[in-house]
Amino acid sequence: MAEPKKSVPNDKKPSRSPFSWMWILLVFLLAGQAMVFFGSGETETISWTEFRRGMLAKGDVEKIVVINKEEAEVYLKPDKIGEGDYADIDKKNSGPHYSFNIGSLENFEQTIDEVQTDTPADERIDLQYEERTDYLGNILSWLIPLAIIIGIWIFIMGRVRPSGNMGGSNIFDFGKSKAQLFEKDQSKITFDDVAGLDEVKVEVREVVDFLKNPTRYTRLGAKIPKGVLLIGPPGTGKTLLAKAVAGEAGVPFYSISGSEFVEMFVGVGASRVRDLFKKAKQNAPSIIFIDEIDAIGRSRGKAASFQSNDERENTLNQMLTEMDGFGSNTGVIVMAATNRGEILDSALLRPGRFDRQIYLELPTKSERRAIFEVHTAPLKLAHDLNLDQLASQTPGFSGADIANICNEAALIAARRNKDAVEFADFMDATDRVIAGMEKKNKIISEGEKKTIAYHEAGHATASWYLKHADSLLKVSIVPRGRSLGAAWYLPEENVIYTKEQFVDRLCATLAGRASEEINFGKISSGALDDLEKVTKQAYTMVAYYGLSEKIGNLSFYDSTGQYESSFQKPYSEATAQLIDQEVKSLVEAAYERTKKILVEHQAELEELAELLLKKEVVYKDDLVGIFGERKFAESETASS
């Protein structure tokens, strides 16, 4: 394959001259108009009274020329020039020497006749009439306003011109693609800046290698993939991975969001798709990256009655045609990212369009440690930082969450006037990201505080004595965000869960309400979040995972999203009632079991509650002192 085309880097834009040709033309027009208005500067304008009393009455005027019946030019007698009142006039000046507006021509002629009543005929003033046409003035009178209007129009068009390397040149280029072009060496992010995605990077790196060394694959008859789709939860690094591809590829890289294709004007989205692929083909080999492709790639035909128009569908149809239609896209690879892969149209996902679908999962402990290494590199760290412990205590965190924790830790350290970011700052940052800002000044009565303490002590006690409950790290009754207290766990990193593990988690979650009932004989609204989690998990066990004996080995989980916009359920009303009964039985059994555990360990529960009222935050060492060493071995790896 031929060497990739080298286009001129567009990071250095040519400087625009402050004086364009329009401004130069305007200056010339104004200068010409000034010449018309001010003339040569040799004729002095006077008033009618000055002319009548100062010149006409004294007999100094040789002749008068009336121009267009509006203005009079006065010529003085040669012997009067350069003397007396006219000493400042050059004798070589043949005139006209003065000019004035005559007003009414009839009155002017009558006045001249009255003044010369007794004047001999040979000495009378010669009164002449001329019709003059000011061609330059007439031209400028309509040319200058026109030039001003054109100048304003050009100025407006320049201001509304879209920014960026791509896009239309003026306000009417709706159908032009708005994709941003990254040339070689423009993107500074490489695969070294992407941590925790080693397996994904192998597949994506192969795409870059396709473009750099195509013969390595085509010599065996293989075809270069046309599309790569990145699917994963938010914050897992899909867009960052695309930026790394732009930095590593060494070929033109077009980046655009899916929402930028769709406008209120019909046909704009399809036009932009055509324009984007046209430019990519002209600069092949190249890469097109479409972020959040679900904005235009939603499955067609679902809930059609609720669609206001089919502009998004037209855009998708054009995308399908461009990716694998009759035309060829040699040297153009399309990358796309979404966190809702289940709603994409099946035609978009078939081989020949997006040949490769890469799934990005939440990072494991080792991957989280690598991500921490990347984001802590620019920070000034203290010597007590333990990345392994940080990775263990952030289960279920995405790369974006970890980046946020590192930034929050630096902000907390700066707020405390520290010289380096310590491990305690990272712990506080983790708490803030999970539960929100600490609210020590929140007004809570003593009775409410005691209820919260016993509630959280119930969670801690039950989880300590349940085999499959998560390992407990600390318990707090300090309000954070919307929560009044919290128990912090270290979930085990499991791929699959058994029914026993689910039931133990239900019991640990219900322990807060059970503790309130046992110790106070009444329950409160403080278990709202716990009950929400329990209800969702119980329905998941029964309706999705088939962990109910009465329902059997059936799952009503919809991985295709077919029932998402439908009013129908994938089961009958009788089955729905059975599911509700099974969920209720499952939760009631877990609740009774939890109360039994708390009654057996009532003394430890009360001791922990009183310690919480005293210290507000109790760590694992204090928990071991109250409950003793936990009988169940903790997993060496921890994640969510």
Automatic annotation (TrEMBL):
Keyword Signal in record: no
Membrane-protein topology: Multi-pass membrane protein
Ranges of residues in domain AAA+ ATPase: 224-364
Annotated Gene3D superfamilies: 1.10.8.60, 3.40.1690.20, P-loop containing nucleotide triphosphate hydrolases, Peptidase M41
Enzyme Commission number(s): 3.4.24.-
Residues involved in Zn(2+) binding: H455, H459, D530
Superkingdom of the source species: Bacteria
Compartments, record wording: Cell membrane; Membrane
Keyword GTP-binding: no
GO CC annotation: plasma membrane
GO biological process, any: protein catabolic process
Enzyme class: hydrolase
Positions of the catalytic residues: E456
Transmembrane segments: 21-40, 135-156
Stated family: Belongs to the AAA ATPase family. In the central section; belongs to the AAA ATPase family.
Matches recorded under NCBIfam families: FtsH_fam
Protein name as it appears in the record: ATP-dependent zinc metalloprotease FtsH
Organism: Flavilitoribacter nigricans (strain ATCC 23147 / DSM 23189 / NBRC 102662 / NCIMB 1420 / SS-2)
Phylogenetic lineage: Bacteria, Pseudomonadati, Bacteroidota, Saprospiria, Saprospirales
